[in-house]
Amino acid sequence: MDPNAKLPETQEGTVLFNLDPIILKHHWEVDYLHSYAQDSPFFAGLSEKKLLGSKCTACSCVYATPRAHCMECGSPTEWHELPPEGRIHTFTTCFFGGEAFLAETPFTLILVEFEGADTLFLSRLAGVPEEEIRIGLPVRARFLRNSKFKPTDVYFVAMDGAQND
Amino acid sequence: MTRPVYLIAGGITKFAKAHPEMDFRLMCKQAFDYALADVPALTLDMIDGSSVSYFSDHFTRQLMAGIMVHDYLGLCPKPSRRIEGGGATGGLNIQNGYQEIASGRMDCCVVVGFETMSHVNTWKGNEFIALASDTNFDFPVGGFYSGYYAMMVQRHMHEFGTTCEQMAHVSIKNHRNATFNPYAQFPAQLSVEEVRAAQMVATPLTMLDICTMSDGAACLIVASEEVAEKVCENPVLITGIGTGTDAMRLADRPHSDVVLLPHESGADYENLRYPGVHSFRGGRLASKLAYEAAGIGDPREALDFVELHDAYTSSEIQTYEDMGLCRYGEGGPYAVSGRTFMPGLDYGLKLPEASQVPVNPSGGLLACGHPVGASGIMQGVFAFWQLQRTIEKHLGRAELQLAHPKRGAIHSHAGTGTYISVSILERP
Ligand SMILES: [Zn+2]
Q1: For residue B50, what are the CA distances in angstroms to A18, A158, B183, B231, B378?
Q2: Quick check: A152 and B277 CB within 8 A?
């Protein structure tokens, strides 16, 4: 036994914000493994420039944002390719956002409605001046060339924009 | 057969941007001690357990914080559990307390909730909150709750002609009410022009259409008739609870028929595509279940006031409709009619009609602040004091005391309408 035992001292110190009460600053960052699991084919589809919804095998309900099982009847769904064109169901231009998206502001969020689909799809709108954004505006899906396997691999532009391709 | 459930005491910490001198345990203890002081005959050994609520482990960065509150209140080894349901956390917690008593499992239960949102900056806080949206399809697109609510109200405006000026009236009302509430974080006397000229956050919502983040705690003590009669001179009955839900994703709102309240008929809504993103069918169902349990036929007649979840001016308008205070589509005109304002207060507005069902006499979340796990309980405490007619005793001033309130409703709301609780409180 060593009555003079010492734990090693380190040099990194502590970031103190305040003394009374004592407030410290911690950094907090992790690598997290997120599985898209049963939603994976949707993200694979984006990399092939396909927008995949799903369709209930029992009641034929069509979901513009896919789900592997039907919210109306619980039956399994099958993958169902959506048309590349839809309309703006609603929209907003965000001047602030969560910290992760603050650098991208202002950006416009839209819910897209598709012919033949019972639900909507959340996406971003590009290339439409704020004063020209309106409910009902026909829009067309565009895809990132370099897929990141994120829902932002697809975004929408005004139908007229197609001429500029 | 369920047993009658009474509210016997309540307490709130002042909601503030930050409370660095108190951690979540001490905040809850402060709210609890305030409640206990109001019923001196109630001793700790008469309390059978607790139900503790907070929304986000990210803000707390302490798992199992619920039991730490329970411990700090001196209640170990009695039963306790944590309740969580996004923005509805507080309202759901009150309903859990109700169930503990109604079922006969407890005779006296502490319902306490808190949130400590000051540990990260506002925009990181917004990011944490947005994690309460689908992390496959919603969060990565620009996760931001104000954006989601802005999209809902754009559609509400499109369907029904609701205006920004009507939304501003909600902001003016709630901030003005809060000038008489010393617990409120953000009392203010505003004009329509000031609300609209405030910093735009997500079109059409400005900073003054949106509640702030807060630190705070609130506590209600619920009890059986036997305990209530023993310790409390003026308890308040919970006569009905209702809860409803909807899909996490705002995009998942297929259309069907309107869920009708007792005073409505299908003919009222022949051409309405429902719920869309403009209405909350979960809020409608929660209201229907609560009204049925409390024997309410027409909420416009039966309710003397409502404390509802106004995280956004727009969601207060949407909620008027869900709760049947007006018909679907009429929320905008209803907001400027004067019927939701307090009688006898000067709002600096020309209001055509008299006060009928004041909404958010406390100032609501818009002006009191929104420490998520406490907010619904805070509104429960105000509704309790309102029905006890003890507003002056607890606030030190009486402007917000209604003359003869008999029955009120409290409403809590999560996500994009994902969990909603409605509870009816009544003076016995
Ligand atoms: Zn189905």
Answers
A1: 34, 55, 24, 18, 17
A2: no
Closest to B201 in 3D by CA, of B155, B153, B240: B153
Is residue B17 in a domain?
yes
| Closest B-chain CA to A36 | B136
Q: How close, in Å, is residue B277 to chain A by CA atoms?
A: 9
Within a domain: residue B261?
no
Which chain A residues touch B if contact means CB-CB below 8 Å? Answer: 18, 21, 23, 28, 34, 36, 39, 61, 63-65, 67, 71-72, 89-102, 104, 107, 109-111, 118-124, 130, 135, 150-152
Greatest pairwise CA separation for chain A in angstroms: 83
Q: Using a CB-CB distance cutoff of 8 angstroms, which residues of chain B are in contact with residue A67?
A: 252
Tokens of B122: 């506002």
Show Cβ contacts of residue B388 under 8 Å, excluding neighbours closer than 6 positions: B234, B236, B427
Nearest to B79 by CA among B113, B59, B108: B108
Digitized pLDDT (tens) for each residue of chain B, 428 residues in all: 689 999 999 999 999 999 899 999 999 999 999 999 999 999 999 999 999 999 999 999 999 999 999 999 999 999 999 999 999 999 999 999 999 999 999 999 999 999 999 999 999 999 999 999 999 999 999 989 999 999 999 999 999 999 999 999 999 999 999 999 999 999 999 999 999 999 999 999 999 999 999 999 999 999 999 999 999 999 999 999 999 999 999 999 988 899 999 999 999 999 899 999 999 999 999 999 999 999 999 999 999 999 999 999 999 999 999 999 999 999 999 999 999 999 999 999 999 999 999 999 999 999 999 999 999 999 999 999 999 999 999 999 999 999 999 999 999 999 999 999 999 999 99
Inter-chain touch A28–B61, beta carbons under 8 Å: yes
d(CA A34, CA A44): 15
If you search the block for the tokens 């306790």, which residue do you land on? B80
Asked if B332 contacts B164 with a C-beta cutoff of 8 angstroms, the reply is no
Q: Which residues contact A33 (CB under 8 A, 6 or more apart)?
A: none
Is the ipTM above a cut-off of 0.90? yes
| Paired tokens of B151 | 């999209």
Model confidence pLDDT, tens digit, residues B55-88? 999 999 999 999 999 999 999 999 999 999 999 9
Residue B265 maps to a domain = no
Tally of domains in chain B: 1
Return the residue in B129, B154, B253 with the most chain A beta carbons within 10 A, the one to mutate for interface testing: B154
- pLDDT of B298-339, one tens digit each? 999 999 999 999 999 999 999 999 999 999 999 999 999 999
Is residue B274 domain-resident?
no
Q: For residue A159, count CB atoms less than 10 angstroms from its CB and return exposed for 0-12, middle for 13-18, buried for 19 or more.
A: middle
Q: Which residues contact B271 (CB under 8 A, 6 or more apart)?
A: none
Q: What's the CATH code of the domain at B84?
A: 3.40.47.10
**Which H or E run contains B412?**
strand B407-413
Question: What element of type H or E holds B419?
Answer: strand B419-426
Range list of H helices, chain A:
40-47
Task: Say how many C-beta atoms besides its own lie within 10 A of residue B37's C-beta.
Answer: 11
Cβ distance B313 to B168 under 8 Å? yes
